[in-house]
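Mods, move this if it's the wrong board.
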Amino acid sequence: MSKLFTPVTLAAPAGPGLDLRNRTVLAPMCQYSVTNHDGVPHAWHLAHLGARAAGGFGLVFTEATAVTAAGRISDADTGIWNDAQGSAWAPIVDFIHSQGAAAGIQLAHAGAKASTHPWLPGPIAAGETGNLPVPGRGWETDGPSASDAFGLAPATAMSTGQIADSVRDWAEAATRADAAGFDVAQIHAAHGYLVHEFLSPLTNTRTDAYGGSFENRTRYAREVIAAVRAAWPAHKPLAIRFSGDDWVAGGWRIADTVRFAAEAFELGVSAFDLSSAGIGKYHGPSGPGFQVPLAAAVKEAVPEAFVTAVGMINDPSQAEQVLVTGAADGVSIGRAALKNPNWPAVAAAALGSVRDAVPFAPQYWRAHW
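Not the wrong board. Structure tokens:
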């Protein structure tokens, strides 16, 4: 049995935790496919996520799912800020479960990177109507500071009252996600979106209790984690996705991530996914597995946590190597899963897993070998 296809348990503050059939995770990937500007998932999201569950993933994450309407990357994104959205997620979760996979939701707020075109780069200004490919509608964006680090219209700096309201939005979204049946909630703190914007000195120039020092810049993230953890059932794991390094001088660096990961673990986060960048011009490495060292650094700092590596992990042997070397406990598969929804099942066969451990849906038994 390969390491990649051994079961694993994600810890939670109470109860036995969450058992995963294997260590493959479908990474959150925006689909930009909501059709009515309402954040409600529909048949496409069922087909997309359901196919990957049937294809053998141990844990299937939704796309970045906004905790408030203003927090969407585009108005073709899914949301969980109202009960109609929560109800629409429930049957999708049920189908994921029926295929033997766990269901995770990535809770997100795009901050200053909200109100953009779904498929092409660039903002949709407040009041403007876009035309790609679903007509879009723009709105004013909020962030920790009036930063222009993204080449977009500067966001409006959030007041302390707005910050408090935002923290409540995260908690209320977590409550709805629980009601929809999700097993894991992941806080999106990567890729230049709101939580990351507070963390990075490149986008947080505040001079109050939410800016300046490391302690102040991490305050919003700590408050979000604490609020979500309080709203999220104690028997369910809480996860977070970090940009482990901005790869920009003066930005958020891996040493900061390692330091804060230990704090997040103490606050109740038990699973960490390590991506990178999203703020400023990219100056980092590239190539297969280029972000694995970021995961390894967090794993060393928080050995009790479940840590996943992500980014250009395409080959089964490559994924296996990440685990057997101890760099991470699991792998998040993104673009390779877009190409092949059965990536885990194919990988299991390629790695020589025993027949019963090859996670094809029963209807596809003829394709086991």
